[in-house]
Protein 1
Amino acid sequence: MLEISGIAVSDGIAVANAYCLLEPDLSFTKRKITDIDAEKNRLKEAVMQANIELEEICASANKKFGAEKAAIFSAHILLLADPELLATMEAKINDGWNAEFAVQETANTYIELFEAMDNDYIQERAADIRDVSTRLLAHLLGVAIPDYSRIAQDVIIVAEDLTPSITAQLDTTYVKGFITDRGGKTSHSAILARTMEIPAIVGAQTATKDIAQGAPLIIDSTTNKVIINATQDVLDVYLEKQQALFEEKQLLKQYRLCESISADGHRIEIAGNIGKPEDVDFILANGGDGIGLFRTEFLYIDRHELPSEEEQFLAYKTVLAKMQGKPTVVRTLDIGGDKNLPYLNLAREMNPFLGFRAVRLCLDKQDIFRTQLRALLRASIYGNLKIMFPMIATLDEFREAKAILLEEKQQLVEKGFAVAETIEIGMMVEIPSAAIIADLFAQEADFLSIGTNDLIQYTLAADRMNERVTYLYQPYHPAILRLVKTIIEAAHQHGKWVGMCGEMAGDKIAIPILLALGLDEFSMSASSILTTRAQIASLSKVELTKHLEQLFTFTTAFEVEQYVKNYMLKTI
Amino acid sequence: MNKTFKITVLEGLHARPATLLVTTVSAFESEVSIIYKGKSANLKSIMGVMSLAVSPGSIVEIAAEGSDASDLLDKVTEVIISQGIGEEC
């Protein structure tokens, strides 16, 4: 029995056998051959088989996940048919080398060439060449390439890191948890785990070395631990714990159809954050009152080109229709900076978080922005759509974005499209400048949504991605609490509602403070909705409000936390 | 036989635009190359086209040689313009 630790990125306990995503062994010897024609035929045969295989994978990915995810495999098919690639390989065989060496040499030449280019998009295509040459080599050597879509029993996935192209192949019903060597709280695998509501440990460093294929595993996210090859006794203990957690969850389910209302009758909205149309199901399963944040970046990432208006329209329409009239807040594209889109060829920046991103990029590249807005407007008739702009720093930005939105609306109406009459237009408050003049914004925006993750990092000037300054990521810092108070009061003063869509909205310590301050909408990951509703039901807003004056006298986050723990978690 | 174009598509000449051009010309017998900044690549090869890394706003020359060269150039022109990839110079 061995224990390793990492960072738990989602709650729960998982018990299942390991499924290690291993690279197949494709080692071979470089050798001279004599029958050149026979060797060329071996290569042709491998190309043909790889092609058939890719066609199958592409068709199945298309059926399971849609054309967008399947596109990566059509790109591979095109590469396989490339005359230059084939000619280079055949030239190496003409020189008397075996096909394996010819494939590898050719691939390496192109990979080096592509990786050396000053263009993110082309650098990433090197990965496609690697994938295709791996597949060719596997066929030449008669080695099977693992087909992740064939996993058909409960497993815990163990990998160095999960890439979108791997997760695109996974059947999530069998995946009970993830363990990865790399990654942090905001990595792709972390977000995926939270969305799927399965436990995951990332940054476990040596997981792929320590864990053998099929080994019995336990993930315990309460202690950030992975237990490998557990004895039966330990397994039993965890199966029991898992059962207890399951029962607790069942108990919470009674809150699924309840209203979000405090013990003294103050009604709020508990909504969910989503990143893809499918995530709506998790929100509905947990009884969310709405969607407080629909991140639209999924439409733009992991692909080679901008999404069309039609494609976006369908995605937004799906979400709105599924929500059946419940409020759905869509955030316009928040890309650029750290979340790059290779195909836009954006320059690398020294300070991506302070750079050319989100609404700044949208106001500059208006084609992109207007396409998204048109798709949203056309979808608006299918539900209760609200639109908000990210990273607003000045009123000019908000005014310009809003004017473009209204202009597109006008044009659609003139062209005869149906558009909902009233669509609330709001903004994210995540930059300190916007928080400080929230009263000015509240006069022009229909609602404000506080994005705490960014608001905290900008207010404390602490990069979220930098592990050495994570101690500065302090949601209870008096400065943050004052800003949140300022924003809520400013909005209410002008009769507007305020939401919060950062991690803080689902935080047990923050919830009593936010309820007391009068926050109207709490938006969080699906898995936090029911616990939050249960907590709200146990709190009295009137009682909590009495603590506010005292709370705002504290000088440190620690004092705030202690005070809430002692006096504000139980008010009835 | 050749023609010059200005590439205007936002993402430059890779991904969808490159794929479109490659599949378009692959149907013809003629040999066809694309010339950018003094470098030439086979326009029937997706790798060749991508390795040129043609960025938006730049000028490229497409040269075809063979029995159906003129039809090929007509078709390429049509695709480039109708798909918003670029314009004739």
Note: Residues 2-22+148-249 of chain A form a domain with the Glucose Oxidase; domain 1 fold (CATH 3.50.30.10).
Protein 2
Amino acid sequence: MSSQGDRGAEAFRGLAAALVSSWLPCHMSGSQKLMPMLQVPAIAVDQLVKVYKTTRAVDGISFALRAGSITGLLGGNGAGKTTTIAMILGLLTPTSGSVRVLGAEMPRQRYHVLHRLNFESPYMDLPHRLSVRQNLEIFGRLYAVEGLHERIVSLADELDMMEFLDRPVGKLSAGQKTRVALAKALINSPEVLLLDEPTASLDPDTADWVRGRLEHFRRSRAATVLLASHNMAEVERLCERVIIMKRGRIEDDDTPQHLLVRYGRETLEEVFLDVARGRGQAREAAQ
Amino acid sequence: MPTSAVTLALQRIAAMVLRYIYLLRSSWTRLLDLIYWPAVQLFVWGFLQLYIAQNSGFFARVSGVFIAAVLMWDILFRGQLGFSVSFLEEMWSRNLGNLMISPLRPIEFVSALMIMSLIRLAIGMLPVTLLAIAFFGFNLFGLGIALAVFFLNLILTSWAVGIVITGVLLRNGMGAENLAWTLMFVLMPLTCIYYPVGVLPEWLQLIAWSLPPTYVFEGMRALLMEHLFRADLMLEAFALNGFYFSLAVIAFLALLESARSAGSLLQSGE
């Protein structure tokens, strides 16, 4: 776990960033300016629990994500990553605890902020018979995007989709579909972007390209990104902070560099395996 | 100038309607499906009516009753189907999650589905109504203002049923898909489409009179056979529809909340 000092420094950086950004008139929406930015993290999860009948899918987790940060959510199958993301999005009601996104309590106040979030997951699809342009038009309208046609063209250009913009989504390759799903997730230039396995089932070249686009978006928009992934190299490359979950709990939470040092490992994959196989605590205890 | 909440809501409803229109435009099989079955029904009942009319003086005098009944039943059934199938399209395409995390509110989603039910009904019923004129000399529009009242009552019932089915689908996933295709058929014998309520056993009549379409079909027969518009029946039907529609919306919201709690919105499979 990160030390108190690290957390203090991070809190200070967040405060400073919030102070600076609160003076910037630039691209911010009215509701965003109204939000008291000094003390509000982009995502704040507190003692969150989700119980399905007899299964505790999420078991009392807490974390806060600074605005503009990019965080990896790691964990094996059934660790509770998707359940956590679903509660952050307001798709799932917590059994207890709370989730606040951009200051709004989820799911109760979700409509205050849903237009400022977006999500991409390989487990969701876009209507196959509609063309890429039609799909983006529909979601652009749902998110009340201004200058929608220009936005679609700019996204198509940025994500290299011009050649298949008018092709039905069902006729695209897996890599092209991922780009379209990413375009849908970016259509409203979200302040908070949640990604569940954004590069699953992609070839290494396309996956690398997608990571590049995500990095670019995060830098240019100063968006908060939470990325659930099994791909350790991806998390290592993109994330400044990693939260590792196991059986619904947070097993570790630190920067990738600190995790590597503390676990005495060279890659996050090795750290992940240590945590997954319960060797993390043993190693720390031995030290 | 900031856009008002109402304008934004209307824009989102329009976006969803546009989404379904794009879908219909992209698929001629979907369009054909809207017309095919109502046309088959029309011909079966139309020719049956011709045959009976040739052999019965009573039916010869009240020609058009069966055809009107089958067209009215199609308004009821296709209205519900148009609502439910539009929703099912989201489940089939695994798009529901995308919609649920968007600013689209449930009431806007339901409004878009109601509009689509009307559009799909118009695509299916207008050609069939013209076929009824061409083949059997029966003009549904000849019912005049009464048709509008009948239509409004039937479509309200179809939406109420569609809303409940949508809620069950949200809560239980695709395992409940069959409800969308079959639930309305439970009403078929009880709402007395082709025969008067008096034919039913007394205890079943109580159930029949608790269903708004029964009043419409009785009203339709009164109009065609006795040339009498039964405003009393229509008012009772409206009152019942108001009650059932409110109940359906409450059930839908409860099922949606239950789905949000059970995690059903995360998956759209069985």
Note: DSSP finds eleven helices and no strands in chain B.
Protein 3
Amino acid sequence: MWVIIKRPRLFIVVLSGILFIPISVFALGLAPTAVDLSVIQGNQADQIFLLGNEKNVVKTFRIELIGIQFGSHADELSFLPISDDQKAWMTLTPSFATLEKGQVAEIALRIAPYAHVESGLYPVGIQVVEEASDNSGVNVESGVVALAFVTVGNDVQTSGELIDVSLSHTLLAKPITIHTTLRNTGAGMLQPQGTVQIKNLFGHVVEEFSLNEHARRIPPDQTRTFSQTWGMEEGDGFIKHIQYEIRQPAIGLFTIEMRTHFIEGDAEQMMTRHVFLFPWRFTLLFLTVVIVGFGVIRYTR
Amino acid sequence: MKDRIRMQLVVLVIGFLFVGTPVLAAMTSTNYEIRFDAFGVGGDDTSNSASYQLRDTIGGNAIDQSSSTTYDVRSGYRQGIFDRVAAFQTFVQNRTTQTAATALTSNTVTVNSIANIAIGDMIAIVQDQGVSQKTAIGKVTGISGTDVTIDSQTLSSGALTINGTNDVVYTLDGTTLSLGSLSPSALSTGIFAWQADGDVDGGFGVYVYENHDLQTIVGSTTYTITDVVDGTVSVGAKEYGARSSDSTLTGSSFDTTDAAFTTSYQLVGSRTDNALNARDFLTIKAAAPATLQDGNYSHTLTLIYVGDY
């Protein structure tokens, strides 16, 4: 039996987090909000979710499994009832939970696909709804959905493509935002990894970013753009920019090198872009001061 | 004399070269979060305000990290594990707490009575209640006389002008949203708000669905108030719908029109980055003709938070 309970320390930290959230503020807490589960047909995988009642009164929660469909754009989701077939090998317990104020309960998701279950990605939602009383008028229920991306089988194709690296601008001054667009060309969920390195004219790395610091995912057939900013935004205004150019001087040709890989051991994909930086605002001011200075000198002669 | 002037110019130029503001040790913005921090002394787990949360730690203990292809352990207290936690709260207009509003200056509204308002309450300030209604919601942070101050304004459209004519304030602590008695000569409205706090980079979506149309059952007959289809809930028509205060929705018409609830999940709020105290609301609208069947019309709306992945 293959039991996956990922990151037990995570549960402890999340449990602590939920317990320390001010009770007067939150009504319902659920963690984690997104997980990946992999299981081979004939085996099973388990995942625990923590549900916290942050209200000052006893509340009853309805807990159910729902199906998820990805749209054509990043973050576009639709929800639908889970199929009877999936219900047979995906179970969620309990289906109701009554919690005292501040109490935390465990919700257990078990994935146990039969041998005939087709390999593939099965995204599902763990929906927890705080039940409302049935009165006249508009009754209001609130809930949270945690997402579970279930991969069944070890033959699900996973692949991705580095589509494009674009820059907010390629000339003159920082900050520069680097947009990297990736596409999931496989059938499984992708969590791409990689680095963005900025090298000066001599090849020395002057800045390095993680491409996907927060481990965001790309569903099949979707593209996602990751952005990093080289240099800090410090507000608008000529003087602000001049101060910025002085504090973070950068001049010359720089190479931005994006390296990414989509699965462990996969070959890296790379793209490079170039940017020429020149602190024109500071230079303009400097020349103005020099010219005015010489003018004053000539005048005083 | 000339040497002195030259020297002054050189000093001036050098001064410009070194102009700069000091790098602030404290991070501030309108909305920020320090996920994990370790102070040499002091610190606790509960620091927060309307605009930030801070999980900090006194020093640190046995912090280490080990990993292989099958595990990743970040040991010691406290490590920066990315714990995606979502918390979600809804607020429903309480019609019984209505009080007239006579003025609004910055985030302070002057009301007739503060009898039902307490610090910490979420309230709705409504300008021109009804067809031309504009609304702001916020959390009460102070009460002085009949002046009620809220932490910020989440608006349905442009800024409010409160002048005491058909302007009211409600608390949002109801359990069921009452639309009052529907009239053929007026539009009934109600506010249904939410606050999402997601430690989820990439933001979140808030979806709504209904169990069935707004309906009443008389004998064996079910009477419904028809879902709005033309984008506007009009006085005297038999129509029901809502509009979101979030004007940036993708793939949903709740931000630009009065839209109908369905049994499918529909997007009514979203953020594209990590958000604390992210608030929005629906203005629910119902209209009825004189021929509407008498009865208590009801249904259940379910509002769901889904974090980005």
Note: The two ends of chain B are 70 Å apart (CA to CA).
Protein 4
Amino acid sequence: MKPEPSLSFFKVLKKSAVSFAATLPLLMGVILLVGMVQTLVSPQMIASLFGHGVLIDTVIGTAVGAVASGNPSIGYMVGGELLEQGISLFAITAFILSWVTLGLVGLPAEISVFGIRFTVVRNLLSLVFTFLISIATVMSVEALS
Amino acid sequence: MNLSDFKGIWFLLGVAVAYGVLWGFDPHSGLKALEKSGTIVWSLLPIFALVILITALVNYFLKPARFVKHFGADSGKKGWFLSLASGVLSHGPMYAWYPMLQEMRERGIRDGYLVAFLYARSIKIPLLPLMVEYFGWLFTIVLTFYILLGSWLQGVVSDRIGSKGP
């Protein structure tokens, strides 16, 4: 690949840094919100929401994962705790998937960067596919094991 | 840079007000939330640097015509592969990658590739051993397969719907 001849790499790097800096208020807002949610919503609180049957638990798993997004490793740990409590694997799979792919706290930033149409389409698709993938995964695992 | 060049000033102010309210009701939680946010910022610094570097590399090496060839409407299988692979390999939270994705979108990347990239990020290679530990090998392999398939399908559906934004 040949580089763009008109600008030096340093200038392109500087341009990228300036462009990144323009989004810093947005990123800081999201980070502060994530910090707040992580402080106010503990893993124990999340675990206490489950235990209402497969279908409702799967809906709860998706919703809670979307709201309380954070480090994926914490999502796996909460999922592991839920599994020990006997919560259905459908709900846990939906929870760990939506924990990473959906994010209500990041929604304002996503709308600001990509526009409302893209954000709505992407999040709706993620929501639907989180359900579908949870069902497909658990059914496949049960069939294979 | 003018103040108007910054994105999300009002959003940040709204969050600051929320912190003010939290501080008023529960100063201890307010302080704890701030400390947690500080820790997140600290952990994200290398990712921010990486995002700036990758954006610069893409802008430097890929002229608009070449960029569209790799990621535009007619880029086909190669574009899907690059989107899924880069999604799987990317670290950190989704929002850390928004600035880079915004630049790529302005240069003409297909929305479907962005959708596929963002969903494929749910596969975290460094955390796969942890997932195996909690849920077993079979579950991890099956879920990873369906995430990749689902990411691609979401991208295809997104392109069909036509989600082009601002």
Note: Chain B touches chain A through 78 residues (CB under 8 Å).
